[in-house]
């Protein structure tokens, strides 16, 4: 990987460079990347992270559409896919990792064909949506976190490689708008087994780490709510955490000007985790009777925030929508990818993984059409494979950020002969 | 292709035409002057005996942006009983109070509306607001960008920056967000809530910046005026929903020293504290103030009884109102050191004293304001009621008998506190045409909309006359958008894409240097990515931008 300064200068002299590039490879959507393009091979020159490198610096590879294992022209592959879709009784549009234009086109096709839509990370997202639809919530956004939060409580996550630049950009940023010195932020982690290294302040201050059993987080939250309400707790420990520590914690949160509770639905991978999310949301609401406090949900990678937002404005619901009866019907349980495939309710899978070709469709007996950037995995074949361009690399586009408020433009930084997901979906629609 | 609409009874207040039988000619999407004898008319549509108006314009309707999408997500129970099936022409959808975007576009067009304006577009959320509006077919769209609680502006105001520099910032934001006008919501209050202030009166200082709502209002109203933005500063004032806020509203009018101001959903800002329950109508005083101050216009924000959802940028007021949530769930958000929002589902009940009086207050304002050019017909969709209740509202305004019957159903204490029954005024079709077409077009600077003169875009609605005005306005016989027939008898017959109305005020680009530095230091997006490009709105040809001129003014 090491490159001499001279070689670097030489490369950059011949390369095309792009600045303020948006990275689509995690839901934070950092938009300060500097990218150089040397004959189609991309390199991140500044503001990088492992996810961005893996995405932008994946070597471009030649690709051809496949029908089974046979190479085919794009037209032939699309015609064959259209035939499958036309004859399907109830096609499932899954994966759904794509940009706004891709999702718009998928929804048009799903509506037209009486299909059903779910995202590859739907299980995680529904921990949030169910909680929100049950009681609502008070939430904040990344710029508020960066400038206003004097106390951040990490509920069962350490962020880690989900969003590698999270700490750099939102926790240990250089300066903030208000009197807050970011280096003085207090961090608290709830959950055994979390890696709290990134939470050590630039001055060397250790974060607080309460090591509850991860799946018993709801008990810790419940205890904090009781203490806030002035209800004494009759035991000395809750889920492995001393009640004394929780008493101190609730006092610190009450004394904070703006505490933020952060969680990540995919990291709450245990049964009925939506109740845990609801508990956190209730605690946040109750704290607002005393001071200001907000929630922030992370996760949301592979474009699920974008897919959910577009689906909500076009169909009224955030994914898991069935158009089978000619209008959108929503059921977070019945319309999950796993159930639809296992039960045979879906008889065709159209899988879209626009950012990462390694995120493959689940093994299934039903015919499968895959849209993903190259390379197609050599160890598996699908009924149809259509290689597609990557939004934010091969073509411009838009995505919605993890906080569900900000959306960013994606830029084209390389030429590609491959079609976008939206283009392929539009041609499929034209075939019907 | 030349089309003649022949023999209709035309109401075109912009040209003083009040129910006269006229032919209209349409060519290439525009209304053209009476044509020469030699010219061949390709198609004649016989509209004898029917009422012809320009397409209706909704100047305040929450149809796009994050808070609307939060409302959609929050309320599956709003959608399940209201499915909309796909047809050969139209996409499927759902919803009553918070409908999906495609359904919103179809419903407006079916009701004879051809342009709708999202009044609360946060700069931080502008891209999504435009993406949602892009998926709202047929109608033209536009948005007012929200300022007044954003850190950059409050900083400028607190440090005494000259008005000219603030004007540059306002102009930059209009341009970057592709907006048509500027709105302020609870001036400075959204920011104050983030610093744990729970109320902010007109002359109360924000604890961090030390500036008051009055200063914010004056500065923004002046900026909008001096930049030559046609629509006055669009104001959602302080103390929304608080009994006694009529005083705040009157003070707001007095406080802008004659600068043009549009007071939005003024019904929610017209409450007194009289009576046993400490809640009374301030409508007479508000109407009198509007009648006296010609720099003031308003839209009403009428409430209707039934289930809806309130979606507002005013997180402070929405947090205050959370205990009224029905069903009992609500969302508040702090957003990007820029703005906020709150979504609270709500059920207005005619047997509830406060709700009943709110209903009466809205109607009193409509009926007591003399000049229909300065009061627009809105329900603040969906906050007072969904936009689909406009035909019912029109009937309430045009039919005293109907209105009195409805009034008699209210909570008796509310009846005792209202003067509504003593008001005999009935709106005429001409006045309805003013308040739903000509006046909003004039206020927004849409010179080629809201009227039927030569050169106007051929947005035309043809109604079958009916003494039941609700029925008449519910399902127009014909709706033309840019000359194309898009709806017949309340059903979509063609789906088109509307345009996006914007402004490009002039400003000193020097402001972008300070903004770039500010964005790099504090924000989480780059300035260049914050800006919405024309290409994003044009969207490979499905959208188009309509830019209206500004007429910069300087004042002594």
Task: Describe this protein's structure.
- The complex is a heterodimer of chains A (432) and B (556).
- Chain A contains 13 helices and 22 strands.
- A nine-stranded mixed β-sheet of chain A has the order 5-4-20-19-18-6-7-16-17, sandwiched between helices. In chain A, strands 11-10-9-14-15 form a five-stranded parallel β-sheet, with helices on both faces. Chain A has a three-stranded antiparallel β-sheet with strand order 1-2-3, sandwiched between helices.
- In chain A, strand 14, helix 10 and strand 15 form a beta-alpha-beta unit.
- In chain A, helix 5 crosses helix 10.
- Chain B contains 20 helices and 26 strands.
- The mean pLDDT of chain B is 97.
- In chain B, strands 6, 9, 10, 11, 12, 13, 16, 20, 25 and 26 form a ten-stranded parallel β-sheet that branches.
- The chains are: A alpha/beta (432), B alpha/beta (556).
- Chains A and B meet through helix 4, helix 5, strand 8, helix 6 and helix 11 of A and helix 1, helix 2, strand 7, strand 8 and helix 4 of B.
- Strand 8 of chain A pairs parallel with strand 18 of chain B.
Could you provide a short overview of the structure?
Chain A has 432 residues and is of the alpha/beta class. Helix content of chain A is 33%, strand content 22%.
Alpha-carbon Rg of chain A, integer: 23 Å
Report the biggest beta sheet of chain A as strand number plus sense, adding barrel if it closes.
Answer: 9 strands, mixed
Which protein chains make the most extensive interface, counting residues with beta carbons within 8 Å of the other chain's beta carbons? A-B, 65 and 66 residues
Helical fraction of chain A: 25-40%
Global shape of chain A: globular
Structural shape of chain B: globular
How many distinct beta strands of chain B? 26
